[in-house]
Design brief:
It is a single chain. 45% of the residues are buried. The chain is an alpha/beta fold. It is built from ten helices and eleven strands. It starts with a strand and ends with a helix. It binds zinc ion. Zinc ion binds next to loops.
């Protein structure tokens, strides 16, 4: 057992121990203490303690992923649904354990994992796009996490969906939880796809059922997935024009739709700018545990660099 990960979420803090092949050996979940920061810090420290005890190694590299970010200028965290906003989590852990633990956005951790031995192995500029309940992305350049001013991941979910595709599909500006209207997340995420199904089919239908119907040859369901692929391709074109990656890895619940990478690639080809070559679009190799794998591997690699 060589490294560990802590995945912070609004409902659970999950500890995960990896062996030398980066295979999961053990996991343990505890409910996230949401009452206040002190209770949360106790729960987090307890999970780190569990990992080091199980590994029999007090210096076990442990990385921590969070659905938010840490400002590199102040070390203050920002996350919704977890009571750590404005807090220096690293300082509290240093006081308790006498060492540093890398804290990383969960989408960045996902991109790091897929760039190192995953679906994007060998690519130079990798974007990992998670399309689950929400939508977010991480970026890895030359195998490293690039420095960023605010410590933001690629917050593509809260950029605006281009008007050209909304007009083309006769879709409204859907309000987003962030306070703005027409955010990409509201069309591309699992929640977004369910809303589009409702608008286009006139019935509430789960994404799993939509996918089943499309696979069975239902043309209306297939059309909804094609329309969703056009919207998703617009998000990918936007990222390409800003970052120009050579590989985009899809993760999260919607990446499990049969043939999703092919469907999005076809739409991307139709919507790309001029003669640009589009990046490889692939689905994640390490599934739901990819983010935990990424942050654990990052902690392991950084520990190696220090010695
Ligand atoms: Zn938004």
């Amino acid at each position: 057992m060589i490294c560990g990960a802590i995945d912070l979420g609004g409902t659970k803090i999950e500890g995960r121990l990896f062996d030398a092949n980066m295979e999961t050996v053990l996991t343990r979940r505890i409910p996230t203490p949401v009452s206040d920061f002190d209770a949360f810090a106790v729960g987090l420290a307890e999970q780190i303690e569990w990992l080091t005890t199980k590994a029999g190694k007090p210096s076990l590299p442990v990385g921590i992923s969070l659905p938010g970010w840490v400002d590199p200028a102040t070390n203050e965290a920002f996350a919704s649904n977890i009571p750590i906003t404005g807090r220096d989590v690293g300082a509290v852990l240093f006081k308790r354990f006498g060492r540093h633990f890398p804290l990383m956005n969960d989408c960045m951790a996902f991109a790091y994992s897929e760039a190192h031995g995953g679906a994007a192995a060998g690519a130079k500029v990798v974007i990992g796009l998670i399309i689950g309940t929400g939508m977010g992305a991480g970026i890895v350049i030359g195998g490293e996490i690039p420095p960023r001013f605010n410590g933001l991941a690629l917050e593509i979910g809260h950029t605006g969906m281009p008007a050209r595709v909304l007009v083309e599909q006769n879709l409204p500006l859907i309000p987003c939880g962030c306070g703005k209207n027409g955010c990409m997340e509201r069309y591309v995420s699992g929640t977004g796809l369910a809303d589009i199904s409702k608008i286009k089919l006139g019935i509430a239908i789960s994404n799993e059922e939509l996918s089943r119907r499309a696979e069975a040859g239902d043309p209306a369901a297939g059309k909804v997935l094609d329309d969703w692929a056009e919207l998703t391709a617009e998000a990918l074109v936007t990222m390409q024009l800003v970052v120009d990656p050579d590989c985009i890895v899809l993760g999260g619940g919607l990446s499990n739709i049969t043939g999703v990478a092919e469907r999005v690639t076809l739409a991307f080809e139709r919507r790309k700018l001029g003669t640009t070559r589009i990046p490889a679009v692939r689905t994640a190799r390490f599934g739901d545990s990819s983010g935990a794998r990424g942050v654990a591997l990052f902690a392991l690699n950084k520990a190696g660099e220090r010695h």
